[in-house]
Structures are given as structure tokens and as C-alpha cells.
Amino acid sequence: MKIVYKVLTIILWTLISSGVLVLLVSAVKKERAMVCKEVVVVFTDQQPFRMLDETEIISALWPDAKSGLPQGKKTVSIDLFALERQLEKNPWILSADLFFDQHHVLFIHVNQRTPVARLFTPEGNSVYMDENFTILPVKPSDVVTLPVFSNFYINPSGANAEDSILMERVTGLSKHILADPFWMAQVEQININADKSFELITQVGDQTIQLGKRNDWSAMLQKLKLVYNRISNENGWTKYSTIDLQFKDQVICVKGNSLYKVADTTALVDSLNQAVAIDSLKNNKNNVQTLIPVNRKL
Distance between CA 223 and CA 17 in Å, rounded? Predict the structure, then answer.
């Protein structure tokens, strides 16, 4: 009886194994016979603008539109990993993910890079840069408004430590400007001087805003707003040629056509509630302006 039981057990497992093998072979044959029915491009980032479009994505993967498109081709013949690597050669693409769904539709998920600044080189060339310091080419479909930096030098042999610090300052200031509609409207461009110091050129007012080499953007822009409040109250938009924010505890305004720095904005102090205040000087005879000679005309 035991022998019969063993024989029946062996036969049963043999039949089960044979059935599984048949199903696997059938599944493999069916999979090999599957063909791509459609290609769908999906942009997974949440950007309100598009520097890429579906046509550009398809053309990058299959330049030959007549014979290169995957529709009708067997899915097993399509190297998804190679196609992902091909897409990620595009500097505007942060990442790409390709896969087939159960209906044999090829989905191309694309995550676009986010530019934070537009840069102009001394030669007049223009590029974008994202927060990871990736240089992005300007495209004909340019639809994004960003803070503009002039005199940005790109080292052909690669960024050194000093270049990295500069790019960090560029992206940091740009993100602070982007976060505030007032500064987006007010700042026309940021000049990068030869010593890597920054100066703002504004839409309203005749002043050049000296930022120096600092990077505490929140505090500096808060101080500048307070200075603007004072200038507005004095109706003095044409009074000063330069507003110097390079020093931590003071703001220096330079009167137009003056050879002197005029200390008529006093030290900025932090109050107990951490609010920054400017001690306004009143236009009366008791105020004495301290003149500090400088070596060149400002």
C-alpha cells in the first residue's frame, strides 16, 4: 500500500511540474509575442512651465520617426534601461523612468530640472542654472522668468572651490528673490563684479545696491526693505546713487555726485523681539552728517 501511495505521489507531482512548465513556456511565448501598442509621455514634476515637450522626448529616443518608433514592435526587444540612460543625457531631464503597463502601453515618466537663475557670461552668452549648480541651455521655448545675473564666468575645465561658493551664492540669492513677488518686480538684474561681490540693479530708484560677498540674504533684503521705507517717506528715490549693505551692522547711503560716503543712515540694531530697525534721521538742523572720504568717486 505504501508503495502504491509513493508511486501515486510521484505521478501527481510529475503532472503538476509538467503543468507548471507548460504554463511557463506558454507565458514566455505569449510575452515574446506581445507588442507595444502605444507610447505615452508623462511629466512627473509640478512645474508650471515646460522646457521640454512630448515631441522632443520621442525624437530623442527614436530620431527616425518612420522606422524607429516602438509601436508594433515586440516589448522584449525594447531595452528600457538603455532608453532611460539616453533620455538622461538631456541636461533638462533630472530623471526618467520607462515601463510597460498591463495593456502593453509604454509609459515614459520624465522629471524636468528646475532652473532658479538665468546667467549671462561676459561674452554675452546666456544659460540657466538649477539649485544643484547644473548648467542648462536656453531653449527657443523659453517661458520662464527668473532673476538675471550678469558677468557669470564658467570655468571650461570645471568648477573649483571658489566657483562652487559663487554658484551657491547665486542660487541662494535667486531663491530668496523668487520667493518674494516684491523683489521679483524690483530687481532688474544682479551684477557679479570681478572680485565676486554682488550688486543689485533695481527697476525703481536710481540706486546701485552693493551686497558685497555676504550670503545672509534674508537679513540683507529685510534691511533693504527698511531703507526703502525711509527713502519713500523722504521722497528720496533720486537722492542716493548707492546703498551699501556690505557691512553687518549698518547701511551706508551714498548721495548722488558725491565723493564722500555720507553716514546719514545709522547703525542697524536688533531689538529684543528680533525685529530689525533703522534709526531714522530727521531733516533738521540738529542732525550732523559725518563725511568719510574715499579714494574714488562712487
Answer: 79
